[in-house]
Predict the structure of GMP synthase (glutamine-hydrolyzing).
Amino acid sequence: IESISLKGPSSKIKSHHNVGGLPEEMELKVLEPLKYLFKDEVRKVAKELKFPEEVIWRQPFPGPGLSIRVIGSADKEKLDILREADEIIKQEIKKNGLYKKVWQSFGILLPIKTVGVMGDIRTYDFVLALRIVTSNDGMTANWVKIPYAILGEISSRIINEVKGINRVVYDVSSKPLQRLAYRNQ
């Protein structure tokens, strides 16, 4: 489960991937003052403490880092490709006034390559799955019905600006039926 319920027992849906202690040799104690708060509750605390808007509305990011969004083996090349694509996604979501309206927006580099054409050159590059969801607490999430023009612009920019991707697909599955992030098995 994403966080511990204060209202009673909850079933364990999955192990939390971004928790854990420090190595014992560090001889430090982990302090977790927000440990029992859900993500939406953390935002409320941040608002009360008058944190900057960009901190309050920062989208959740996986604890293991970007590599969890590369299906299969993650190397520097794939991570660089994904970083570039993610930056375009973030720019377009912000430009179109959607950043505060969506819970998360990100790309997932799939272990699939497809044939494409750039100019008059044949390409054989990766497929990027675009994931944009809305949620209140991260426990459930629904895919966002992004206007086609915005999806088209995101796709076009990624394909034309990110070397290594020649196809973008939009993931329309919801959580809890599917996880927000894909999972390397």
The chain has four helices and four strands. The longest strand covers residues 104-118. The chain has one domain: 24-170. Helices lie at 39-48, 53-56, 76-95, 148-161.
